Amino acid sequence: MEERVATRDSSEPERSAAASRFARDVLVNVLANLIASAVIYLLGAAGGLLPKSPYLIWTSVAILLMAVGVGLAVLSQFLPRGPNRRMVFGISLIPFGVAGVLIPFFSENLDASNRVVIPASGVAAVVNGVIFILLARRDR
Prior knowledge:
Layout: H1 12-46, H2 54-77, H3 83-106, H4 112-139
Helix pairs in contact: 1-2, 2-3, 3-4
């Protein structure tokens, strides 16, 4: 009887890396299209080319606020540790908080608990952002 030794396929890490890159690229593409659609809708509604829906306007604003927050949070990770990094991270929390506070005003499908929890989380994000900013200013 012949013994088989289990060997690891040398192309397995390459396939795993390719799958990770594909998933990342798909996610980036979806987010870019979501942000682009928010911008296009806001510009079209402002120009009178599209119907103005308060829900779509606030949703677009919330999407853009969260995109700004994510962009600033990512930017803060490339800065050296110190007050500047804390300052940019604190600033990145504020758009998330504002979006969280706005969500109940344009979402009809939230239950009573989420109408309290989501804005409370938004307020907490803004407060934490202000604290980060104040600490960064103190340490300069």
